[in-house]
């Protein structure tokens, strides 16, 4: 079974807590879900008109354009 999930966020959701704020991944790329690990930085130069596919650890640059 496989599933494609579309994410458009380029940063985390901030969850305010009384002791320490938490950042929840909204880009779908974190290797430490549900928390943001900074992997969303790989999306910051994405073109809005393109569709990207990421594979493995995004920090190794494994990204390609699927549709432009
Ligand atoms: S929002 Fe996904 S890694 Fe930061």
**Global Rg:** 13 Å
How would you describe the shape? elongated
Proportion of residues in extended strands: 15-25%
**How many domains make up the coordinates?**
1
The bound ligands are: FE2/S2 (inorganic) cluster
The structural class is mainly beta
In N-to-C order, the SSE pattern is EEEE
Q: Could you tell me how far the N terminus lies from the C terminus, measured between alpha carbons in angstroms?
A: 27 Å
Percent helix = under 10%
Strand line-up in the sheet with most strands:
1-2
Uncertain stretches: none
Number of helices: 0
Average pLDDT figure: 88
Beta-strand segment tally = 4
Largest sheet: 2 strands, antiparallel
Report on this model:
This protein is mostly beta strands and 68 residues long. It has one domain. The protein has strands spanning 13-15, 22-24, 51-54, 63-67. It has a two-stranded antiparallel sheet with strand order 1-2. The protein has a two-stranded antiparallel sheet with strand order 3-4. It is elongated. The termini are far apart. The model has no long low-confidence stretch (mean pLDDT 88). Residues 11-12, 25-27, 29-30, 36-40 line the site of FE2/S2 (inorganic) cluster. FE2/S2 (inorganic) cluster (FES) is lined by residues 11-12, 25-27, 29-30, 36-40.
């Amino acid at each position: 079974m496989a599933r494609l999930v579309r994410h458009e966020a380029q940063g985390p959701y901030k969850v305010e807590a009384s002791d320490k704020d938490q950042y929840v991944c909204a880009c779908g790329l974190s290797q430490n879900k549900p928390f943001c690990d900074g992997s969303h930085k790989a999306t910051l130069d994405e073109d809005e008109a393109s569709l990207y596919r990421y594979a493995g650890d995004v920090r190794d640059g494994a990204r390609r354009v699927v549709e432009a």
